Amino acid sequence: MSKKQQYCLGLRTGLPVILGFVPVGIAYAIMAGQAGLTVAETIQMSVFVFAGASQMMAVGMLAQGAGVVAILLATFILNLRHLIMSTCAVNRMKRTTTGFRLLAMFGVTDESFAIYTTMEEENCSVWFFLGLITVTYSSWVAGTTIGAFASGILPQLVTDSLGIALYAMFIALLIPNVKHNFRLGLLVVMTALVNMGLQQVMASSWALIVATLVCAALGAFLVDEKAEEAKQ
Amino acid sequence: MNTNMIFLILGMALVTYIPRALPAVIIDKMKFSPKVEKFLSLIPYTAMAALIFPGVLTVDANLWYIGVIGGIVAILLSLIKKMPVAAVVVVSVVADMLLYTVI
């Protein structure tokens, strides 16, 4: 495949994310407005930061009167998971320059990571990733802009129902990979339970990181090579 | 625009970009053993499991079954061979929409 074809495949593969990112972008913009951010500040944060959960947390903290340093620290902790995701993504991104990698990694989110790392290895070029994040980034900024100017654009029923969109996407990416591999399926269920358990004793951002790393490490000893075959 | 806000947005941009960019710079200097490669290849699955659960239970903060029903619909559809991800997402959303209209 040519670079252009890879880029276009990335664009197409990213389309389901629009359903998740636009409504979440709108929700973030509404929260930001309520916290006292101007329209410009609300959009700038999405343009420069591009991290939904962090942005929501930041404007939530601002509304409660938190200081800049506290917000930055919380953002950093919440985004440490990107360090793991970026390592996995970049490890699959062979044959490219550091410059392109630095550009591409700006777009690492839970969603782009999930799509990219479950693709067949031969599709995993930097161009595919750039196509993918073109869609995710523009839908995030578009959602924010819509929400900043017209908060009531989507009926309540639609906004509520779209809450499932990103979860459904994660499930759709996960299931085809685990259904032919019992041990991998077991590992996935175990991770979910470990994550829930850890959330009782630590912040959920830490629980996610610990559960992901510990269970992947355990899995490295328990799951056999069929994990690779199952990726069709 | 107040300076505090500029500082916050740029600061957040920085602390978000650093963890994303670091691996891009150092990956060439790292050589992973097969065991570590194995570990890295499993992270997508464990990370996604942790992203889905228990978060899916709080899709609607007041009605836990909205996430559960939507999730079950997504699982059932995903079990069908060659089902496009977009279709799974759209049908799950529609299922929740129907659920909201009947309750």
Question: Your description of this structure?
Answer:
The complex is a heterodimer of chains A (232) and B (103). Chain A has 13 helices and no strands. Chain A has 232 residues and is mainly alpha-helical. In chain B, 42% of the residues are buried. In chain B, helix 3 packs antiparallel against helix 4. Chain B is mainly α. The longest helix of chain B is centred in the first third of the chain and has 24 residues. Chain B has four helices and no strands. The termini of chain B are far apart. Chains A and B meet through helix 1, helix 2, helix 3, helix 4 and helix 5 of A and helix 1, helix 2, helix 3 and helix 4 of B.
Overview features:
heterodimer, A: mainly alpha, about 75% helix, globular, B: about 100 residues, 2 domains, 4 helices
Task: Write the SSE topology.
The complex is a heterodimer of chains A (232) and B (103).
Chain A: H1 3-34, H2 39-48, H3 52-63, H4 68-79, H5 81-92, H6 98-105, H7 110-117, H8 126-149, H9 156-161, H10 165-178, H11 182-199, H12 204-222, H13 226-229
Chain B: H1 3-26, H2 34-52, H3 64-79, H4 85-102
Structural class of chain A: mainly alpha
- The SSE string of chain A, one letter per element, is HHHHHHHHHHHHH
Q: How much helicity do the residues of chain B have?
A: over 70%
Mean pLDDT of chain B: 93
Count every beta strand of chain B, where a strand is a DSSP E run of 2 or more residues: 0
In N-to-C order, the SSE pattern of chain B is HHHH
Q: Name the biggest interface.
A: A-B, 95 and 72 residues
Largest sheet, strands/sense/barrel of chain A: none
Number of contiguous helices of chain A: 13
Gyration radius of chain A, to the nearest Å?
A: 18 Å
Number of domains of chain B: 2
Strand content of chain A: under 5%
Strand content of chain B: under 5%
**Through-space gap between termini of chain B:** 45 Å
**How many strands appear in the DSSP assignment of chain A?**
0
